[in-house]
Design brief:
The protein has 13 helices and 14 strands. With 388 residues, the chain is α/β, with parallel strands linked by helices. It is elongated and about 70 Å long. The protein binds S-adenosyl-L-homocysteine and iron/sulfur cluster (SF4).
């Protein structure tokens, strides 16, 4: 019986070297392979012309480059793009590309569904389906980068939105954020090699500051990340005390605020920037009152951080609503007057539902996928804290 093919996207530099050496090839071939796959975006092994024919033959028999199939691509008028990716079992995940004047940010998913079950998150509401593999995660960057590079229309659109020239040194994706579906630190073993590939000079060569992992607060894994691959960290806080956070982010019962904030302090010396970002989803009359802003100030006193206020993206089952702009403004003012850095997340991709927490991969019936129209809905994404 044939054993399953090796997916070259699953292998970080070390694993690639081990694989190559196992085939009795010189170790430097691993770098060549990484280069072909990730830098040049070549998925067809036969086209890797500086590898000996015999080696290519062996590789073609055993290995492949396999990213998640794309079910749908939607383009918003502001240039934001959203792709729906098939993870099998009638499930899908989503990724979003957000072009800005000085960067292109890709928001990727780490799991199909999520087990943390935050009360304001559509991904959580759908439950946990499965972890994505390393290849399925890095494959999102692989696909987006090379698809956008190769598609003249995409480049044209990129140049139109919002200004030309943010394509850096021929690279389209300059920043990656793990803020799509799933809790990345609950899929640590697969996330780690994907992070390493993002940073690897023979693959994507992104700096640690340009890769942000967002977590609901899996404390032991935050410590592991600090040691293994300390990229920029965003922590989903959403509440100024344990009683409320227990309700909004059930993981808080396991890792309460005191432990979470201690883990943030431990992470800081390793962080590529000298602050942690705290995400705070603004929920009408739940966590958006003046007194709660003041409590938040007390809670975070002394921690080098930025607070990113995210206007809640509603979905029917949550029973929650978004704080008014005036409320968000008042809340953010209290933080700022106390000397904290608070930003409000920008609205992007309004017309394609590319929203944080709305990424539910909700296309269950695949026969309908291609007919799906891009409906108008609230969409919001990311990035304000990604200043250089
Ligand atoms: N699981 C990780 C990363 C994915 S969620 C985490 O929770 O951090 C990415 C961000 O989107 C998190 O800050 C999350 O709290 C936020 N989010 C989830 N649902 C949202 C919603 N409905 N509206 C606005 N932000 C939401
Ligand atoms: Fe999972 Fe993050 Fe959604 Fe919470 S907010 S359910 S951790 S994806």
């Amino acid at each position: 019986m044939n054993s399953p093919r090796i997916n070259l996207l699953d292998l970080d530099a070390e694993a690639m070297k081990a694989y190559i050496v196992g085939l009795h090839e010189k170790p430097f071939r691993a770098k060549q392979l990484l280069n072909w796959v990730h830098q040049r975006g070549v998925g067809n092994i036969a086209l890797m012309s500086d590898l000996a024919k015999g080696f290519r033959q062996t590789l073609s028999e055993q290995a492949e480059v396999c990213a998640l199939p794309v079910l749908n691509e939607a383009l918003a008028t502001d240039g934001t793009r959203k792709w729906l990716l098939d993870v099998g079992g009638s499930n899908a995940v989503e990724m979003v590309f957000i072009p800005e004047d000085d960067r292109g940010t890709l928001c990727i998913s780490s799991q199909a569904g999520c087990a943390v079950n935050c009360s304001f998150c559509a991904t959580g509401y759908q439950g946990f389906s499965r972890n994505l593999t390393t290849g399925e995660m890095i494959g999102q960057l692989w696909f987006a980068e090379h698809h956008l590079r190769a598609d003249p229309n995409a480049i044209k659109r990129i140049e139109e939105y919002p200004t030309p020239g943010y394509v850096h040194e021929g690279r389209v994706v300059s920043n990656v954020v793990f803020m799509g579906m799933g809790e990345p630190l609950l899929n640590y073993d697969n996330v780690l090699p994907a992070l390493r590939l993002m940073l690897d000079d023979h693959a994507y060569g992104l700096s640690r500051r340009r890769v942000t992992l967002s977590t609901s607060g899996v404390v032991p894994m935050m410590d592991r990340l600090a040691q293994d691959c300390p990229v920029a960290l965003a922590v989903s806080l959403h509440a100024p005390n344990d009683a409320l956070r227990d309700q909004l982010v059930p993981l808080n019962k396991k890792y309460p605020l005191k432990e979470l904030l201690a883990a943030c302090e431990r992470y800081l010396p390793y962080a590529p920037r000298d602050f942690i970002t705290f995400e705070y989803c603004m929920l009408n009359e739940v966590n958006d009152q003046d007194a709660q802003a003041r409590e938040l100030v007390q809670l975070l006193k002394g921690i080098r951080c930025k607070i990113n206020l995210i206007p809640f993206n509603p979905f029917p089952e949550s029973g929650l609503t978004r704080s008014s702009p005036q409320r968000i403004f008042a809340f953010s003012n209290i933080l700022q007057e106390a000397g904290m850095i608070a930003t409000v997340r920008k609205t992007r991709g309004d017309d394609i539902a590319a929203a944080c927490g709305q990424l539910a991969g909700d296309i269950i019936d695949r026969t309908k996928v291609r007919e799906r129209t891009v409906d108008a809905a609230l969409g919001e994404q990311i990035v304000q804290w990604l200043e250089r």
